[in-house]
Design brief:
about 290 residues; mainly beta; Porin; 12-stranded antiparallel β-barrel; two-stranded antiparallel ribbon; 3 helices; globular; disordered N terminus
């Protein structure tokens, strides 16, 4: 069975299970980083709504990897976002800018979010430093297209699947260097959230790459002379096959002042694939 067929079956299984059970999970990466606060003055499903906000994170972690590849525990990111919605459908625009590292990113997400089910298709445009701002937006080398599906059981247990369909680096190669086929780099995640009285929520997350994913599954990483890079060699080859990349525990709480929400998160992440540890502090606002 090919990986593409496997993904389609996994998506179908989650979709069918959604008919039998009834969380609202905002998509990744924009959704786990974007703050969406709907206008709830009416219950009309056709009602237009919007939200805006920004996060300040001590590091930009995605699927267990720090996206700057700086090797620093503290590499702050500023992440503003705006969301426009019509009923259960929405468009989210999200920007990541780092004042220290050179990695920049702009995400555009089309999503469907209803009760316990969330489906998204998002485009990531990324680059390094000044190159990011001067590159032609239509240059496909800087984009990737990913689809995700999430479903939550009992308002506590969330299942997530994401697959990349278009990316210039998402290929498997033959021994002679020619392209073999698309890799369809994928990621699945299981997360459980437990409220602790009315003080905070604690979430345990485990995420993995089910097969070789060259687009985002980085190999062994080392730091030399302050430089952080992938350490590929004969004894330390690139990552292939199934790999756990994200073990995380997070404490979170939202504070509300009028119509403005101020979320605070404190988390710890270990990536078994790269053997790196991260502490993460994130706060922001949305309205």
């Amino acid at each position: 069975m090919t990986r593409k067929v496997f993904f389609l079956l996994a998506t179908l299984a989650l979709s069918v299970s959604a008919q039998a059970t009834t969380f609202s999970f905002t998509p990744e990466p924009a959704t786990e980083l974007s703050l969406v606060a709907e206008d709830t003055e009416g219950d009309d499903e056709g009602l237009f709504w919007w939200s805006a906000g920004a996060n300040l994170a001590s590091n930009y972690l995605w699927r267990g990897y720090d996206q700057s590849y700086s090797g620093k525990m503290f590499d702050p990111s500023i992440q503003p976002s705006v969301t426009l919605g019509l009923g259960a459908f929405y468009l989210d625009l999200w920007l990541n800018v780092s004042p220290i590292s050179t990695y920049q990113e702009f995400d555009m997400t089309l999503g469907f979010d209803y009760e316990n089910l969330s489906i998204t298709v998002y485009d990531v445009w990324c680059g390094m430093g000044k190159e990011f701002w001067t590159n032609n937006f239509l240059d496909g080398n800087n984009h990737n297209l990913t689809a995700t599906i999430d479903y939550t059981f009992f308002d506590r247990l969330r299942l997530h699947w994401g697959t990349t369909f278009i990316h210039s680096a998402d290929w498997l190669y033959n021994e002679d260097g020619s392209r073999k086929r698309r890799a369809f780099s994928s990621y699945f995640e299981v997360a459980y959230t437990q409220p602790v009285k009315e003080l905070f929520d604690i979430t345990f997350t485990a995420g993995a790459s089910p097969w070789t994913g060259p687009f985002w599954t980085a190999g062994p990483q080392i730091v030399e002379d302050g430089e952080y890079f992938l350490d590929y060699n004969a004894e330390n080859p690139p990552v292939t096959g199934f790999n756990v990349t994200n073990l995380n525990v997070t404490l979170s709480r939202d504070f509300e002042v009028g119509r403005v929400t101020f979320p605070v998160q404190l988390g710890y992440t270990f990536n078994p694939t790269t053997k790196r540890h991260y502490a993460l502090l994130k706060t922001g606002f949305s309205f």
